[in-house]
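In response to the reviewer comment on reproducibility (Comment 2.3), we provide here a single inverse folding case reported in full, input and output, so that an independent group could reproduce the run without further information from us. The structure tokens appear first.
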């Protein structure tokens, strides 16, 4: 199948899913989300694929949501907004529940939904130049749909900091908090990814699928449909608020949002 914003490559038993919107740092829009969802669902039924690597073309892994798309979503009706958010929820869940082990190959920026993709993968390998962030609050939003995966990766305590401050997380800090399993210099990133692939290929595919199911079964964080729908409802509501509209408009016009001026006045 051909894709507009993805490239799917197979090397032996390994599928490489490349986000391919480099001019916009592989930012999401509806088409990207739909193509990722379709790709993951197709990979899930393929027995000739043992490992899935998710990566980004160009300078970045993924900048998260395309802000023009987010602005349009904020102006849509509640029903349209929730249906749109559910597409992102379903795509992330398709990635998180793939039977094959998944590796996020992260370089450059992985912000917002990009950090969500990295967290939804089983293993995250990051370049030392990588930077992560849940940047939503600076746009008047919340990291709703990615929250189950990010919190699973870094825990509620670390999420309390980064969800609220939207600070950028360096590769070294990402490893310290459990977001990245390994980091490597840019020129050694593919070598490190290959090392993990080689280790994964030593395991039995059915045993690995069963192990992934086991982790979900015993994890304290229940990834049920109710929770996923709640996160979609949450972001749909936040998107329509005046703060979200202010934040997105300010960003697109390269101005500071109103709440930063209020903060400065209080200093």
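Designed residues, in position order:
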């Amino acid at each position: 199948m051909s894709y507009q914003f993805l490239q799917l490559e197979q090397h032996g038993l390994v599928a490489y899913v490349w986000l391919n919107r480099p001019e916009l740092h592989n930012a999401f829009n509806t088409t990207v989300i739909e193509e990722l969802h379709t790709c993951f669902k197709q990979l899930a039924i393929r027995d000739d694929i043992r490992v899935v690597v998710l990566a980004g073309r160009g300078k970045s892994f993924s900048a998260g949501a395309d802000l023009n798309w987010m602005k349009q979503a904020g102006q849509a009706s509640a029903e349209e907004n929730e249906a749109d958010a559910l597409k992102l929820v379903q795509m992330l869940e398709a990635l998180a529940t793939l039977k094959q082990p998944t590796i996020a190959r992260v370089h450059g920026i992985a912000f917002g939904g990009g950090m969500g993709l990295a967290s939804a993968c089983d293993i995250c390998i990051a370049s030392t130049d990588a930077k992560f962030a849940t940047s939503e609050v600076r746009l008047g939003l919340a990291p709703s749909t990615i929250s189950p995966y990010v919190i699973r990766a870094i825990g509620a305590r670390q999420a309390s900091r980064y969800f609220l401050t939207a600070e950028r997380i360096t590769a070294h800090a990402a490893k310290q908090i459990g977001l990245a399993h390994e980091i490597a210099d840019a020129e050694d990133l593919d070598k490190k990814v290959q090392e993990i692939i080689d280790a994964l290929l030593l395991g039995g595919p059915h045993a690995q699928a069963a192990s992934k199911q086991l982790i979900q079964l015993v994890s304290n964080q229940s990834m049920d449909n109710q929770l996923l729908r709640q996160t979609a409802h949450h972001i749909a509501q936040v998107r329509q608020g005046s703060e979200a509209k202010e934040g997105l408009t300010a960003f697109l016009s390269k101005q500071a949002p109103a709440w930063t001026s209020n903060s400065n006045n209080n200093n």
